[in-house]
Amino acid sequence: MSFVSLGQQEVLLKVNNDEVTTADFVRVYEKNLALINDAEENSPEQYLDLYIDYKLKVQEAYRKGLHNKASYKKEIASYRTQLAKDYLNDVQVTDKLVEEAYNRTKNELRARHILVRVRSDALPKDTLAAFTKLLEARKRIVAGEDFASIARKYSEDPSAKQNGGDLGWFKAFKMVYPFENAAYTTKVNEVSQPFRTSFGYHIVQPTASRIAQGSVQVAHIMIALKQKDSSIIAEEKIKEVRALLAKGAAFETLALNYSDDKNSAKKGGVLSAFEKGQLSSSKFENTAFDLNKVGDISEPFKTKFGWHILKLIKKNPVLSFEKMKPSLTKRVTKDSRARVLSRELNTRLREQYKITQEPEIISYFTSVLPEVYDEKLNVFTDDNALSKEALKVGDQVYTYKDIAQALEKKYRKAPYVSRDYFVKREVENFVNNALITYHKLHLEEQDSDFGLLIKEYKEGLLLFDLLKTEIWDKAQKDSVGLNTFYVNNIERYKAPQTFTMRVFTTSQKKIASTYLKRNTQGENSNSVLSVLKKKHDSPIIVTLKDYVQEDLPMSGIVRIGDKELLKEGENYVVYEVVSINKAMTNTLQNVRGQVMSDYQKFLEDTFVNRLREDSNITVNKTVLNKLISRYNE
């Protein structure tokens, strides 16, 4: 949105001494717009009330000095450090890395590997031993020996004993970047040279590649292995459901009435789309991906959760590069592959902060340090030279002494082989660290988005602390106030009347009518059901289900023993009222969690009302009306 017509710097609101411009408010309003479901609260004037409450609570937190707490300062410092990494990484992203990630997302790879573990700080002899061991394994594989057998003998990956080093199918971001890179740059069926990751040394052999399958969306009906009704056998029930589907019954109706996955049953069994490797059941994934046409229905199959039937809703191929680029860019900035561009960051910061003195620094320390390492020699003795300015980053000045102290630590820690290499490396490291440290400390000035995020986090943390001390903790300790609130609002906590129904479903009207007739005449339901199942091949499903009054399939007054035959889609359903559970008032103990939540909300509303009464709040109606008009266009 362009704020020109709105006057972005106009003061919209003043809460005590805190002024809020139109731009300030609109930024927060539009950021949170999608989170507000209530249409009325979506309007600027309604959201302004929420915003005022927020500002009042933040001001109260500052007034109470919560920002001076050591725990708060520690939390902010930790968050800032983590967030700063993302903003530093952002400058390291290149189109080449993002395009590479896309190609490796679109093209999956199957590979096997052998790992020999070695610490990153291992001694040279240990590193050499690991490297030599892998060379030996590679030599035997290249000579024709079976990779899986060699992996079981040499690999220190525990899973190799079972899978022979096979990693299955993977794509970008599924492995650490050095491993991914080695796998994707080695030809299929060839064996890579040893390479190193944080786990140790590897060799990898790609065995196949394919175009990624994308994601799939299915609906499912699940019959859980464990049933409340011991007479229900999950496998038999799922087969009966499948038979009803084969006769034309609607998948959505059967999912709603019979699936034990209550979350998806409400949506006709529909699940969110998923990719291979995303779920905990490979059987479920493979069955879903094996369905070809939209509407195809699987045969029943079993997982550790129960018996399932799937219906294909949609297959989603990998998105185009343009559509995936924003998400890939975000992932690349957080992935280890971004480290390969750290030199570009350092180069940019050198230009940004006008660092030009490194050659002189290197020359000085090269002239001071001995060419041959001498542990006993005290090299930094010229106080006059060391006191001079070596470099300046922004307004931060570093002397030769600052750099000397850094070199001294490394100098005393271990001998160097090449003085020139040592000086060049350590001076470069010092300058890089100085640049990054200064840049991190001034990120708010360099990037307004970073500054806004830090501010939001600070205020959010203060708000949490305020509500915890002023509302949540008080509510937990105030048992008298909680009980009084419960008594004053007891009508809220009544459990509704429920009806337990026996639901008999078949696709044949004659079977349903026979069941209803014989049941009405007093025959035992289970006996009638047994006879009908033996006599008819058409599937019959019977289950118990609880209903509240407004969801009852029957109309009028309902009593225990009432029965009714209804046609629902392609099915005929007999409903029988088995029991009626009367409405009752829950005790405080039974609904303590709900009452506690309501009581905390009551305390918070009371708290905010007091803050409003004690504050000076001014809204510029003219500016607000401009906003309202703009959003109503």
Please report the total strand number as a whole number: 19
Q: How large is the radius of gyration?
A: 35 Å
The biggest beta sheet is recorded as: 4 strands, antiparallel
Q: Report strand %.
A: 15-25%
What's the overall average pLDDT, rounded? 90
Spans of 5+ residues with little confidence (pLDDT < 50)? Answer: 1-6
Major sheet strand order: 4-3-6-5
Query: Gap between N and C termini, in Å?
Result: 12 Å
Q: What proportion of the residues is helical, as a percent range? A: 40-55%
3D shape: flat
Instruction: Figure out the total of helices.
Output: 25
Judged by helices, strands and strand pairing, the structural class is alpha+beta
What are the main properties of this structure?
18% strand; 633 residues; alpha+beta; four-stranded antiparallel β-sheet; PPIase_dom_sf; single chain; 25 helices
Compose a concise summary of this entry.
This protein is 50% helix and 18% strand. With 633 residues, it is an alpha+beta fold.
Structural notes for this entry:
It is a single chain. The chain has 633 residues and is an alpha+beta fold. It is built from 25 helices and 19 strands. Strands 4-3-6-5 form a four-stranded antiparallel beta sheet. A four-stranded antiparallel beta sheet has the order 8-7-10-9. Strands 15-14-17-16 form a four-stranded antiparallel beta sheet. Strand 11 (389-393) and strand 12 (396-399) form a beta hairpin. The two termini are 12 Å apart. The relative contact order is 0.10.
